[in-house]
Structure prediction request, 168 residues.
Amino acid sequence: MAQTLAIPLAPSLSVICNGRSPNPLYNTLSFPVSSPPKVRALSIKSVRVGGVEIPNNKRIEYSLQYIHGIGRSLARKILVDLNIENKITKDLSEEELITMRDQVSKFMIEGDLRRFNALNIRRLKEIQCYRGMRHIQGLPCRGQRTKNNCRTLKGKRVSIPGKKKAPR
Prediction:
């Protein structure tokens, strides 16, 4: 059996030389060489900040908004305070991530904020002020009209049996 020897000359060409013939012109074959198969290495899909996994493929300003209690203005304020440019989250270094986690932990976010709001609503219900009563009844608290809208709070319409529509 003849041995074959592959000698790469250029990235897109290879020469195959058969061991029998001394003349390389008769046994030269060129063909494009495909790039080696790409193997997906382990990559971090998201970064954990403030107990929440924020997306890795978005800019930091928008990734921080996935944390409950951090909106657009607070995310921008955090970036300005830390002097970090608004780059994609996966491009952050470890030091920048650590300083960002420390900065975010200074604010009331996630569970603490939800608990704080729930306690405020419970207090309003206990003292039975106007806003507390509206929370109990499941109606809007901030002066919106209720004849036509506010379906989010009132729920689906319930038809009243025996009530007839007015003739036109």
Q: What stands out?
A: The longest helix spans residues 110-127. Residues 12-18 have pLDDT under 50 and may be disordered. Strands lie at 4-10, 13-18, 46-49, 52-55.
